Amino acid sequence: MRLTHKQAAYVISYGIVTISALVLLGWAFDITLFKSLQSGLTSMKANTALTFLLFGFSLRFSDHLNSTYRRLALLLAAVGLLISLLTLFEYWFGWNLGIDEALFADPATAVTHFPGRMSIATALCFVLAGIALILTILRHHLAAHVAAVFVGFLGLLVLLGYLYNVSSLYQVFVFNSMAAHVAVAFGLFSLGILHLHPHAGLSALIFNDTAGGLLVRRLIPAVILTPIVLGGLVVFSPQTAAFDSKFNISLLVLSNVAVLFLVLLWSASSLQALDLDRRQSNQQFRLAVEASPGAIILVNQAGKITLVNAQAETLFGYTRAELLGQTVEMLVPEQFTGPHVHDRTGFFAAPTARPMGGGRDLFGRRKDGRQVPVEIGLNPIQTNEGQFVLASIIDITERKQAEAEIHTMNRELELRVAERTAQLQAANRELEAFAYSVSHDLRAPLRSIDGFSLALLEDYADSLNDEAQNYLLRVRAASQRMAQLIDDLLSLSRLTRSELRPVSVNLSEMVESIAEELQQAEPTRNVTFVIAPGVMVRADVSLLRAALENLLNNAWKFTATHASATIEFGVEKRPSNETIYFVRDDGAGFDMAYVDKLFGAFQRLHTTAEFSGTGIGLATVQRIMHRHGGHAWAEGAVEQGATFYFTLPGNGR
Amino acid sequence: MEKVVLLVEDNLDDVDLTLRAFKKNNLLNDIVIARDGVEALDYLFGTGPHATNPNPLPQLVLLDLKLPKVDGLEVLRRIREDDRTRLLPVVVLTSSKEEQDLVQSYRLHANSYIRKPVDFLRFSEAVRQLGFYWLILNEAPPDAPRAES
Questions:
Q1: pLDDT > 90? residue A82
Q2: Using CA atoms, how far apart are residues A196 and B44, in angstroms rounded to an integer?
């Protein structure tokens, strides 16, 4: 598992806490291993361990989200700083404040001037470390990091003393020197501070993915470790003891140079690869910009154009040379340049990818002064040269034209629809007036013809012979038939004029009631009705009743010549999921050759002498079905009955 | 004295046929004929030619709808608007059974709506029934409003 820098800092803080806690345990139970690692070596003093404990916890909580924890961290750092400062004052003024053995007596240093006191070097390191901590908590990262680096170097210095066995490096006074594990703890502390905020202060130089960061991370360990390791080899090698120190130093310098040279070469090759990669990305970026179908302009924070593509040249009518280095407002219509500068500043304050203009119509200004309707997308780009905005600009002249055309067409269409509607309404009104007039005026003469024919027959029966009387009877029959035709015609025309009011209708009950009426009208007929139960539809009640009356009247009428008959009402479900209703009889039927004529107005397949009727019934049925969005059709054969089907879309079972 | 029936009808043929139907059914009331809406209103309200000699209200008005000058529905409206004639029995007797005519007539409080059949025998039967009902069976409203005017 890879730790993040912050997690690493926390682990380090736990490490410091653990070391200091162990040392305190060592003091409490007199465990030499914990106090001095090995008897005879300098011990980590109790106050040193205590201060590390305080700083360890302080480091852990120094960046806590909860401000209470941060305040606690500040307090811990301040107490640690106070302890170390007091210790320094003790040395400076020769005081003994009694703090050195406040926790535990130190018999090992009892004979010295400063029993149990931490070394001056340690106290100085703590002062620096405390300052580093407080600066970190107050978010002055650069200063904190500098202080931490000092602490680390001092720790390293002491460790080198131990490594090379040079006591002057760690032993300021006899029995008052910095212990090795104290030096290690200071080194750890330094690393902890640097890792805690990896993107601030000095750490930002080290922990980033730039070439610089890579170089620092490679070179720092090399620069630190190479001399230490090589120096150690020189110091401890039995062979080198034979040579004089100048030779040894020369050897050390030479090997240092060699190793560092190799590290440098290795780093350089990595950096070159990285640089080539970036150059290639840059090249690809430029190619992508150039290949973009829309115009692209890159603008820096000062509003200067730093990159354009060929499309931008075409769109604005400027050459590349004329655009580069100019302020972008040269491409904005004059009346908008002021607001544009303001908006541009606003964009750089909060750079997010978004369309420009917030829904307003945008225009670009060409070199020739012409304004072009455009759509602009803005994308922030962060580079090492600062913040840029990449504007992709699309010329929407054609789209605007198309929109305008569509708008005009819609307007025209609306006008035409309104015109047609008005015409239709006028036609409907005319039709209504016509129907009204027909119903009033066309019948009156027929009444006269019939009435006076009858008057002749009644009043002048004596002077009219049989033939004359027969003619008059035929005049009367014809006038009555014409009246019937007019009525049927009017009711057919009313079907198209009346408003459709769909409700839930029980067709089965409707058929039953019509069947009952038919049987009551002619009780001597022997007709069996077979009615499918519970057939519900959504339709206009009066229209559906008119349709069913027509169909059942037909069935009744065309079975009259048979001694007994069956009339059936039912429902079929077709594979197409269409629900089909039908009225079937076993009466006179019809020849399928004339099926086309069946539903036409005033079309009849039988003479009036055979079967009465005006020929309007099935036309009515068809029109009712059409008004419901359905249709009607028929199947039959002469003397084998007929089936009349109809559909009512939107109704299923 | 037998009260009269006011027949408002512009078609002479229809007038003759209606009279014939009355006669055939032995309805002996006097029948006054108004040939258009204006004549009917003059007769009822004692205006125009009737100003000098106002008539008593008829027992029944038989009203055609399609009339010259002032149409039947307008005549009916004026009858119902006036206190003198508000209660007068008015039977619409016309050719059409257009929905708008029916609705309008009843909205204006026509007492009945009879459509004239083309077949004279049925027409005669209709006249017989309406005459029997309105002139014999039905109790006419009292004349009181007339006295007030």
A1: yes
A2: 112
A447 interaction partners in chain B (CB closer than 8 Å): 13-14, 17, 95, 116-118, 120, 123
Average pLDDT on B127-139 reads 90
Q: Hey, are the CB atoms on A476 and B119 less than 8 Å from each other?
A: yes
Query: A637 phi and psi, to 5 degrees?
Result: -150, 150
Please state, in angstroms and as integers, the Cα–Cα distance from residue A19 to each residue in A7, A35, A537, A557, B144, following that order.
18, 10, 89, 114, 126
Q: Which residues of A touch B (CB under 8 A)?
A: 435-436, 439-441, 443-448, 450-452, 454-455, 476, 479-480, 483, 490, 494
Most confident of A151-160, A207-216, A229-238: A151-160
* Distance (Å, whole) CA B135 – CA A275: 120
Q: How far apart are CA A437 and CA A431, in angstroms?
A: 10
Question: Which pair of structure tokens corresponds to residue A243?
Answer: 């040579």
Which of the residues B11, B102, B120 would you substitute to probe the A interface, choosing the one with the greatest number of A C-beta atoms within 10 Å?
A: B120
Taking contacts as CB-CB distances below 8 angstroms, the residues of chain B near A490 are 98
> A449, A479 in Cβ contact below 8 A?
yes
Tally of CB atoms within 10 A around A446: 20
Q: What is the pLDDT averaged over residues A124-153?
A: 91
Q: Is the pLDDT of residue A647 over 50?
A: yes
Chain A nearest-CA distance from B92, in A, is: 13
Contact at CB, A452 and B116, closer than 8 angstroms: no
* Residue written as token pair 């219509």: A333
Whether residue A1 has pLDDT greater than 70:
no
Least CB–CB distance from B118: residue in A435, A436, A446: A446
Alpha-carbon span A212 to A214, nearest angstrom: 5
String of DSSP letters for A171-239: EEETTEE--HHHHHHHHHHHHHHHHHSTTSTTHHHHSSSSHHHHHHHHHHHHHHHHHHHHHHHHHH-TT
Q: How far is CA B74 from CA B33, B38, B86, B111, in A?
A: 18, 10, 14, 15
What residues of chain A lie within 8 A of the CB of B17, using their CB?
Answer: 447-448, 451-452
Give the closest residue to B38 by CA, choosing from B58, B7, B68: B68
DSSP one-letter string for B38-66: HHHHHHHHT-GGGSSSPPPPPSEEEE-SS
**CB distance B42 to B8 below 8 Å:** no
Rounded to an integer, the average pLDDT of A291-318 is 90
Asked if the interface predicted TM-score (ipTM) of this complex is over 0.85, the answer is no
Tens digits of residue pLDDT in A583-642: 999 988 888 888 877 887 666 666 666 666 667 788 888 888 988 888 899 998 888 889
The pLDDT tens digits for A139-182 are 999 999 999 999 998 888 888 888 777 766 666 544 457 888 88
Residue B129 has pLDDT above 90, yes or no: yes
Closest residue to A443, CB basis, from B17, B20, B95: B95
pTM of the model: 0.48
Q: Which residue of B has its CA nearest to A438?
A: B96
How many CB pairs (< 8 A) connect A and B? 64
Residue in chain A lying closest to B10 (CA): A444
Distance CA B106, CA B97 (A): 13
Range in A343-352, A549-558, A595-604, A630-639 with the lowest mean pLDDT:
A595-604
- Residues from chain A contacting residue B117 (CB–CB below 8 Å): 447, 483
Chain B neighbors of A446, CB-CB under 8 A: 118
B98: nearest CB among A439, A450, A455: A439
Q: What is the pLDDT of residue B144?
A: 46
- A439: distance to nearest CA of chain B, Å? 5
Residue B147's pLDDT is: 38
Q: Give the pLDDT of residue B1.
A: 47
